[in-house]
Design a protein that fits this description.
alpha+beta; ribosomal protein; Translation Initiation Factor Eif1; 4 helices; 4-stranded antiparallel sheet
Length: 132
């Protein structure tokens, strides 16, 4: 059996308006933004996935005890051939130095160009992964 105090508190709680009814509601319009929108990236037929550390998957590599040096771009999804052509044309590499490995799907660039490729990817893809 309920005590008189418990019953009085229950009645009081039901008759008291909620805090949301007493306080004004604050709403923000998403259309009235004061920030400058980022420049729209060009739609491309490929996407470069990021590594677990939120970096672009661009790595230096060597073969034959360092006599053969090249840069490898991994995690290319979509049209890999178009990526290789765009990279050669827009980043300023000779077309014969940029090759697509048909087995792994990685793009290889003759020479060590990790920083240049990462810079090009960050401007091209519209995302800025932290510079390594």
């Amino acid at each position: 059996m309920r005590s008189a105090l418990t019953t009085a508190l229950a009645v009081l709680a039901r008759s008291t308006p909620r805090a949301s009814a007493l306080l004004p509601s604050i709403r923000f319009s998403s259309s009235a933004s004061t920030t400058t929108p980022a420049p729209a990236a060009v739609a491309r037929p490929y996407v470069i996935g990021l590594t677990a550390g939120n970096q672009f998957p661009v790595y230096p590599s060597t073969k034959a005890a360092g006599s053969s040096k090249f840069t490898v771009v991994k995690k290319i999804e979509g049209n890999k051939k178009a990526f290789a052509q765009d990279l050669a044309r827009e980043a300023g590499f000779p077309a014969e130095d940029v090759k697509l490995n048909p087995v792994t799907g990685h793009v290889q660039i003759k020479g060590f160009h990790v920083d240049k490729v990462k810079q090009w990817l960050s401007t091209t893809m519209g995302k800025s992964a932290a510079a390594a």
